[in-house]
TrEMBL record:
It catalyses: precorrin-2 + NAD(+) = sirohydrochlorin + NADH + 2 H(+). The gene is cobA. One of its GO terms (biological process) is methylation. Keywords: Cobalamin biosynthesis, Lyase, Methyltransferase, Multifunctional enzyme, NAD, Oxidoreductase, Porphyrin biosynthesis, S-adenosyl-L-methionine, Transferase. Its EC number is 2.1.1.107. Pathway: Porphyrin-containing compound metabolism; siroheme biosynthesis; precorrin-2 from uroporphyrinogen III: step 1/1; Porphyrin-containing compound metabolism; siroheme biosynthesis; sirohydrochlorin from precorrin-2: step 1/1. This is Uroporphyrinogen-III C-methyltransferase. CDD domains: SUMT (cd11642).
Length: 435
């Protein structure tokens, strides 16, 4: 059954609010009133010491009597005394005041709400007295969600209104930008258990989610049904949306005040064009957070039993991309393969394995340089092909992307170290995948 109540903001006249009772409960009510610019008249034979720091209209150190309520528009009974309550209930009709009996909702003409203040903007949460704890929890959730800059905007708009300047469209736009949040979320190589907790919470709470084609089904299954889910994946030779379209789409939803999550495979800033999106959104004035993800450049070798650094094998490593903007091939990194004690991890290089091999051999790099191709890292269809530079192209032909290529002596550790599959399956895999 619906409760017949109307949330309103009262503007009582000076001295029109009377607080009966001045113990701990009364002190709390007095503090709430003072925080809202209301100095109450307090009536009680004894007054809690905490009242000394609270702005008050006046204090009457006595038991309340009918004559004390002359001119009162709001009376708050914080005594917990049934006799006082009965007296006030009998007087309210004749005196014409609204009565609140603390913690007795059935006897209240109005309820206190849990409040948030952003300058002239106030947000009140009420349960019609059913559960103050519930309203406090909801209030605190709202506080964590809303940006503190709302106060600045509220004061700005109050100033404009007092000056006769009212532009609803401009206010709506400014508010939407302030309330919107955009997160570029790194989702790792695919295994849902490799998501960070921050990524998980953003996915569960976002209003709108735009996701790439490499986001796994297990991660997509986390998206609530209430969220708008939009595929914006890019594959070689097949882009569902251009980057400009993706940028504009994010802005379109952010301008409405939505929380937008842009899910990206791996880490947004490792060959993921995250920097371009973040710069575009920041330039447009939106709050942008970037959530780091586990890159396949690190996770891929690890789940194949290949550490990118290991004492006696590699003291440093590089991560490179075989593709540049405009589908151009990037082979400027080939000389990294000459470096001793070094691991080179190549992203987006599977289809260019022949070109990589030929360029490396032309520069005198040994055909026997250990190499490994790890495809679909951390996913159920993960494959690892251990090979050499000279046989790289042949090994690549037997692998389905997406995949990374690892060069360096650390590849030899694949035969020793545990990978994504363990036990007997690991031995079978090592024998079957060796080329």
């Amino acid at each position: 059954m619906k409760t017949a109540s109307l949330p309103v903001l009262l503007k009582p006249k000076e001295g029109g609010v009377v607080l009966v009772g001045a113990g701990k409960v009364g002190l709390h009510k007095a503090e709430v009133l003072a925080a809202n610019g209301i100095a109450a008249t307090v009536i009680a034979p004894a007054v809690h010491a905490g009242f000394e720091g609270v702005p008050l209209h006046r204090v009457l150190r006595k038991n309340v009597a009918a004559g004390d309520l002359k001119g009162a528009s709001v009376v708050i009974d914080a005594t917990g005394d049934n006799a006082v309550t009965e007296m006030l209930l009998g007087l309210k009709a004749a005196k014409g005041f609204l009565l609140n009996v603390v913690d007795v909702p059935s006897l209240c003409d109005f309820y206190f709400a849990s409040l948030l203040h952003y300058g002239p903007l106030k947000i009140a949460v009420s349960s019609d007295g059913a559960s103050p704890t519930l309203t406090q929890c909801v209030r605190d959730k709202i506080r964590r969600t809303l940006p503190p800059e709302l106060e600045t905007l509220a004061r700005e708009k109050a100033g404009e209104r007092s000056g006769g300047m009212i532009d609803a469209a401009a206010t709506r736009n400014a508010t939407g930008r302030l309330l919107a949040s955009v997160s570029l979320v790194g989702c790792g190589p695919g295994d849902v258990e490799l998501l960070t907790l921050k990524a998980y919470h953003i996915i569960k709470e976002a209003d709108v989610i735009l996701y790439d084609h490499l986001i796994s089904e297990e991660i997509l299954a986390l998206i609530p049904t209430k969220s708008i889910k939009i595929y914006v994946g890019k594959r070689k030779g097949c882009h569902s949306r251009t980057q400009d379209e993706i940028n504009r789409m994010i802005v379109q939803y952010a301008e409405k005040g939505c929380s937008v999550a842009r899910l990206k495979s791996g880490d947004p800033y490792i060959f993921g064009r995250g920097a371009e999106e973040a710069a575009y959104l920041a330039e447009k004035g939106f709050r942008v957070s970037v959530v780091a993800g586990i890159s396949s450049a690190i996770a891929g070798p690890a789940v194949a039993g290949i550490p990118v650094t290991a004492r006696g094998y590699a003291a440093n490593f590089s991560v490179v991309s075989a593709h540049l903007k405009g589908a151009k091939t990037n082979l400027s990194w080939i000389d990294l393969l000459r470096q001793p004690d070094h691991t080179t991890v190549v992203l987006m290089g599977l289809s260019l394995s022949r070109a990589i091999r030929d360029a490396a051999l032309e520069r005198g790099i040994s055909r026997t340089l250990p190499a490994a191709i790890v495809s679909n890292a951390t996913r159920p269809n993960q494959q690892t092909r251990v090979t050499t530079l000279g046989k790289l192209a042949d090994a690549a032909g037997a692998v389905e992307g997406p995949a990374i290529i690892v060069f360096g002596d650390v590849v030899r550790l694949h035969a020793i170290l545990p990978g994504y599959l363990e036990g007997g399956k690991r031995a079978e895999r090592a024998a079957a995948n060796a080329v």
